């Protein structure tokens, strides 16, 4: 038992001493990869808004995670979820939703665990809804309510990590520091 404790203690010590935060270049590369993954989503927003004749309020509500009050807004949500393969054959595809979130949040075990629980709970909520626009909108709202605090926490931690990589002396900031600051400001 003592040797097992030593191995665990040594492993924890080794991992904590060998941990290296991402470099500025790695952060920029990661941000660029996320941007590439997000571009089709942006295009789908525009195309869906035109397709269902959604208003700017409907689009803003979707982006701000405000429940939709109009049928066009609800159908806008359905269009987005269908185009991003979150809904296939009028049902939520758990695996596709998990993959979409991995592209943004990585392999964060807390986020993925809570996401799986939220998907299960929200799938139960929409079980009896047969109209696809209502189904998609209710599911989307449920997911936002279940995940809001977790995602906000992860986003804030990543912002703080990015800021921690920068020097505190603005007189010696490099162009990369300026670029990183712009990226962080854009997220805020």
Structural commentary:
The chain has helices at residues 2-18, 24-52, 56-63, 71-83, 94-105, 109-125, 132-164, 175-187, and strands at residues 87-88, 91-92. 17% of the residues are buried. The chain has 188 residues and is mainly α. The chain has eight helices and two strands; from the N terminus they run ααααββαααα. It has a domain at 22-146: Orthogonal Bundle (Recoverin, domain 1).
- Helical fraction equals over 70%
Q: Biggest β-sheet: count, sense, barrel?
A: 2 strands, antiparallel
Total strand segments: 2
CATH level-1 class of the domain at 22-146: Mainly Alpha
Q: What is the radius of gyration computed over CA atoms, rounded to a whole number of angstroms?
A: 20 Å
Q: Helix/strand/pairing class, anyone?
A: mainly alpha
Spatial separation of the terminal alpha carbons: 49 Å
The CATH architecture classification of the domain at 22-146 is Orthogonal Bundle
Shape: globular
Helix-strand string:
HHHHEEHHHH
| pLDDT < 50 runs, ≥5 residues | 1-10, 13-17
- CATH fold naming of the domain at 22-146: Recoverin, domain 1
Approximately what portion of the residues adopt beta-strand conformation? under 5%
Residue-averaged pLDDT: 77
* Assembly classification: single chain
Give a concise summary.
With 188 residues, the chain is an all-alpha fold. The chain contains 8 helices and 2 strands; from the N terminus they run ααααββαααα. The longest helix has 33 residues.
């Amino acid at each position: 038992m003592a040797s097992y404790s030593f191995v665990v203690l040594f492993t924890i010590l080794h991992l904590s001493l060998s941990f290296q935060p991402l470099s500025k270049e790695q952060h920029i590369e990661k941000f660029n990869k996320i941007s590439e993954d997000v571009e089709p989503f942006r295009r789908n927003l525009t195309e869906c808004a035109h397709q269902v004749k959604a208003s700017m309020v409907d689009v803003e509500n979707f982006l701000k995670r405000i429940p939709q009050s109009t049928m066009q807004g609800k159908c806008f949500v359905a269009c987005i979820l269908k185009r991003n393969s979150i809904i296939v054959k009028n049902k939520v595809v758990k695996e596709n939703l998990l993959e979409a979130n991995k592209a943004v949040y990585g392999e964060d075990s807390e986020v993925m665990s809570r996401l799986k629980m939220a998907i299960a709970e929200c799938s139960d909520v929409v079980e009896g809804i047969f109209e696809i626009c209502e189904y998609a909108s209710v599911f989307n709202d449920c997911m936002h309510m279940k995940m809001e605090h977790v995602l906000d926490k992860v986003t804030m931690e990543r912002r703080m990590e990015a800021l921690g990589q920068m020097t505190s002396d603005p007189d010696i900031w490099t162009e990369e520091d300026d670029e990183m600051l712009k990226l962080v400001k854009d997220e805020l």
